[in-house]
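Researcher: First entry.
Model:
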Amino acid sequence: MADFLQTITSSLKGALSSFEKKPDSVIGIDIGGSSIKVVQLKKEGGKIVLETYGAVSLGPYADQESGQLPNLDVETLATAIQDVLTEAHTTTMSTGFSIQSGASLIFMLDLPHVKESEYAKIVPTEARKYIPVPLSEVSLDWWVVPENEYEGETAKRSQVLVVAVRNDTLQQYRDIVTAMPITSKLYELEIFSIIRSSFNHELEPIIVLDMGARSTRIAIIEYGVVRSFQTVNRGSHQISKTLATSLNISFDKAEALKKKSGIHESEEYPEAQKVINSSLRYIFSEVNSVLLDYEKEYHKTIGAMYLSGGGVNMPGFTDELRKEFKFPVSIVDPFAKTVYPDFLKNILTESGPDFAVAAGVALKQL
């Protein structure tokens, strides 16, 4: 599996992929819990151009409603990917994939400062304390953070960013590529794709909240380095499911209600506001725990929060976070680094958070 993690390592370092020749157009593919998103970009005249993008819901492929979390086999996933590529009128077979955070761990080790060759012995031993499965079941990679990218450390200690990805997950991605007429040399964790598409070397520590259908990712980024990362096993699907159960309505109606009213009061279902707020309390408490742990360890405060993922478009969600955490909260714009027709601006601004991962994977290849 070394060829898979080799591209993850380059992501950590911010290096370019090692293609012998860069393709004219590239596609980033994000396989989420409830949908697949694709973005096709090309470099033209020194600028990055958005050629096309698209998404497909996975529920119908298992005879379920849109927004559900089906467990699809490799062949069905390959079919769904081919469908969205066809519907988006993509024109290249050069692709990269994001790896779902639920199948990975990201953490920082504080280790003695040693020769680089010695980390191969030290890191697996120390990483074992953080990984809940045998090391034989994961592929492990790490990167020693340069001293000038953090403060308050001494030359006697090193900060090492470690990534562990389940081997069976990596094999699934390989099987998908094998089942399709595409080529892929890039497999990257979601959070690194979001960083690439949405940020520009921010100096102050920031927190990223990425709410997908299956789960919510919380990451603290400092000087482009992931200082803290946590996956919360609750996402936008859980909110719709709780609404459907509490209000005794269908899942489809709960999805529509969530997207229309969100945290705001609904005339038809006034109790929905309380149900959604209750669902969000757990996520907010997890965010607060991450913030407190970071501030305690690094003695720094967070300057801003950025939101990505389809779940953050829920009406009232951003305002609720601003009231909860008292610092600036913004929704990411992953298409800000690309050129596209003016008439798409409003559409891309609204749908942008859902495509932050796919756009980042595509940008990595250019």
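Researcher: Second entry.
Model:
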Amino acid sequence: MIDCIATRRRALAAGLFACALTALPGAAFAQARQVPESREQVTLSFAPLVKRTAPSVVNVYGARVEKRPQNPFMDDPFFRRFFGDGGFGVPRERVQRSLGSGVIVDAQAGLVVTNNHVIENMSEVRVAFADKREVEAKILLRDPRTDLAVLKVAEARNLTAIELADTDELQVGDIVLAMGNPFGVGQTVTQGIVSALARTQIGVGDAQSFIQTDAAINPGNSGGALIDMKGRVVGINTAIYSRSGGSVGIGFAIPSAMVRLVVDSARAGATTVRRPWFGARLQALTADVADGLGLDRPAGSVVASVVEKGPADQAGLRRSDVILAVDGVAVDDPEAFGYRFATRPIGGTTALTVLRGGNRISIPVKLVAAPETRPRDPVKLTSRSPLAGLTVMNLSPAVAEELAMETANEGVVVSDVEEGSTAANIGFQKGDIVMALNGEPMATSRDVENALKERRRAWEVTISRKGQTITSVFPG
């Protein structure tokens, strides 16, 4: 069971997860990795580097006010006399809070990176520094796809940032430290190693390739840093595997390469992350297919379909091609490809190693952003219907890319589902494509809005969800 480290619903106190390490005395940082050879080396302390990097890690606090349903007796003077304005002692409003961690990545601009789930749906966010200062923070960018968010603190004086490392330099067995505030007990430092790299299928976000570590990580560490032996951030801790909710030595961090992509988008003033568009749908390579192709193991991604005039199509990729590597780095599955491709800079090209007809060939693919082929025209549906509470917009490659949809480029897509709404209770999901209402095809968001203005005793709704068409009938 994979748990996000900070959860508002459990009201866990989340703290910093800063990390720091120090080099062996008399050894340069560029020294080759080596196993300790003496008792003196084993008893060395990480304290100097912890002290140096701790100011770069912050606590992140979020809050929002939730209104409770009003008591029907509250307007009666008799009940107000005995029970007050709250109605039977129940307050009309309650404050939901979120506690987590963050890392200062740009001291001059006052940028702090944290997990999206730490500040999701929060209307107020504050950041507390190691020196006890506490300031308001503005959410510059949220990226649910990577579970990352970038904040800007209101006061950016006397800040210390941590450098983002090159994740490709990281190796299994490297020592890492984790510092945070698990369960609200106070700042805690834990030490471990990199247990594995390129972990996919974690169930948190998408287009990721997680770092796995055995450094003790517990609820309360979300948004904190995993730091290498040079005092650089190699990852942002995001999830743990646990049956009890506590650490069992299996934690996962988002690699710094993905963090850099999100931070650079925020620096550029973007409100969404700009990723290169591939324009093809991939499937995992099965053992049977791999054996038939003469491969030693089922590692690679099969091209299932290609979007016409997209980058993959223009590069000459074909259906049934098997992608084995990106810029010389092997990618074992579609998730690993998605991470590697997404972290390439827009504007250049990337070389794909492709198996076609038994031969390995190199195919250069242009790194371009997905186009906005038509206006989004978002519409929030409020009329009485099964779709009340949905926000729908016109699909385009850019919208499909942001919503992590595979190759859908036309139609009307659900971009948001209001919590507690009629549509949410029915089960509509973000990414659903509204195909038809009462048998009438829906081509634009305004078509949906206009169709719902009519009062009906029953609604027949046809949607497409992950390639499957679903038709249901609801009362009006």
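Model: Note on the second entry: The CA atoms of residues 326 and 340 lie 7 Å apart.
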